[in-house]
TrEMBL record:
This is Teichoic acid transport system ATP-binding protein. The keyword Membrane applies. PANTHER family: TEICHOIC ACIDS EXPORT ATP-BINDING PROTEIN TAGH. Residues 389-493 form the Teichoic acid transporter subunit TagH C-terminal domain.
């Protein structure tokens, strides 16, 4: 093992966002997944990291750059190949397509063709080339990913829970040893101690999101086995709840308290110790806003009279009245024609006027009157149903669940930049359908304003959330999600 650090994670902490709106307003984080994790992976090192499956998932995502940590940073020297069987169990594409897409990131030209041919000659791959990834067993996926990793030259390779699905420790060890001898850094993320004990040359144990041990494999195994022996002495549910309680509490303590700081007991603590000052300030601010809003509403009713249907700000400037439009509409699933131009679903229109039966909508330089049921009315200021984005994502197609972070990164960005980086099957003034992926981007001028994608097969969202209408608009953390139950598709907008 040499002294070159290939992967460094410094003080990494990650917590889920609180699901309840009230907690988010008060600045409360959700459950803590990682706290002050430090990882150093050296050239020619096999680092075994032991933890539960959920913690390993967040460590993998943060280290590979898919998730941004709340605090801390990741530094890399070279490229990273992250492999996890669970990332591909819902992949709808063929094995042949997946291999070529993956290899394009690491190989080119003659090397690419030679590597593809070598992989096709492997029985576990050659016999399943036309099968969809989701139709392969987890054991097959593990062997396929291991074969691919053996032919990719990259500085850091992360294997997540491979031993669980592979069932062939010797084969796994031979591939890891080959990379180790080539000076690469290998990170084994495992829920089982066995592969770490037999393959790794350095050991880290993460318990309840915190590093509990870091050192030699021999000492780490001894420490972990001692923990298991103590845990085996637990006799009932009450003892289990109290077991390891002090360590569990550490993850929720403020970082300003170290392990040697003794917390005040209830009898020692003053009243102020139990008050969250930030909550008091936020509460006072909210109370002030509510009083101010009530006052504005009262004045509006008393002196102005009936308010218009849509929220508008009007200013009288030298006799001219100007209006800032805040209401919009989307073309519905049947499409719409304005001034001879056919507009596809989810094309954005501005609402300039309304009456009991029609909206006057504007597109480009043309205006038209449309019936209320011909478009999807959308007002960003309306109180739409609030929900968690990740919860709604469960009702999207698997390909979106696995790749949404990459594709949504283009929203609110430049259309020109999107077209430089994405290949389209269909591309016109209003929208572009991504080649090979069921995603359609919608444009407003030079801006990518929304992303349309398919819902999950046999979608149960209507029953699960008791949706009554054909189209439902949800307000989520960073924007809005519009669900069309007839077409079973979504449209995602980021504010």
């Amino acid at each position: 093992m040499k002294n070159q650090i290939l992967l460094k994670g410094l003080d990494l902490s990650y917590s889920k966002e609180a699901k309840k709106f009230k907690k988010r307003m008060l600045g409360n984080a959700g459950s803590v997944q990682l706290k002050n994790i430090n990882i150093h992976l050296y050239e020619g090192e096999v680092l075994g990291l032991l933890s539960d499956a959920e913690t390993l998932f967040y460590i993998k995502e943060v280290l590979s750059g898919t998730l941004n940590p709340v605090t801390g940073k990741v530094k890399t020297h070279g490229g990273i190949l992250s492999l996890d069987v669970m990332d591909h169990i819902n992949n709808p594409f063929s094995l042949s397509f997946f291999i070529e897409e993956l290899l394009e990131e690491y190989k080119s030209g003659k090397q690419f063709a030679e590597t593809v041919e070598m992989l096709h000659n492997k029985p576990v791959i050659g016999n399943n080339l036309k099968k969809k990834m989701k139709d392969l067993s987890r054991k097959q996926l593990a062997h396929i990913l291991l074969e691919i990793s053996a032919l990719i030259e990259v500085e850091v390779i992360i294997y997540t829970n491979f031993h669980k699905y592979l069932g062939d420790l010797n084969k796994f060890r031979s591939v890891v040893n080959m990379h180790e001898n080539s000076g690469r850094g290998i990170l084994l993320l495992e829920t089982s101690l066995e592969p770490i004990e037999k393959i790794a040359n350095y050991f880290t144990w993460v318990s309840y999101g915190q590093i509990r041990f870091e050192g030699s494999v021999e000492q780490g195994v001894e420490s972990y086995n001692k923990y298991l022996r103590e845990k085996s002495m637990v006799k009932n549910i009450e003892q289990e709840a109290l077991f390891d309680l002090e360590w569990k509490r550490h993850v929720y303590e403020d970082e300003m308290y170290n392990e040697n700081f003794k917390r005040l007991g209830k009898q020692q603590a003053s009243i102020l110790d139990n008050i969250n000052i930030r909550k008091i300030i936020v509460t006072l601010v909210l109370a002030f806003i509510m009083v101010l809003s009530a006052l504005v509403i009262f004045m509006n009713i008393s002196f102005i009279g009936e308010t218009p249907t849509f929220t508008e700000e009007q200013q009288n400037m030298g006799g001219e009245v100007t209006s800032e439009r805040l209401s919009y509409a989307f073309v519905d699933r049947d499409g719409l024609e304005i001034d001879g131009t056919s507009l596809p679903q989810y094309t954005l229109l501005e609402v300039t006027d309304t009456d009991e039966e029609t909206y006057t909508v504007s597109y480009g330089n043309a205006e038209a009157a449309v019936k209320h049921d011909e478009v999807i009315y959308f007002n960003p200021a309306s109180l739409y149903t609030e929900d968690d984005f990740m919860s709604l994502l469960e009702y999207a197609s698997p390909v979106i669940q696995n790749n949404y972070m990459f594709y949504s990164n283009y929203l609110n960005g430049s259309r020109e930049f999107l077209e430089q980086n994405i290949t389209f099957d269909v591309l016109d003034e209003n929208h572009g359908s991504v080649a090979g992926i069921p995603i359609t981007y919608h444009f407003s001028g030079d801006t990518v304003f929304s992303m349309e994608f398919e819902g999950a097969e046999k979608n149960t969202i209507t029953e699960d959330l008791n949706l009554s209408g054909e189209v439902t608009i949800f307000r989520v953390d960073q924007g809005f999600m519009i669900y069309d139950s007839v077409e079973n598709n979504w449209n995602y907008l980021i504010r």
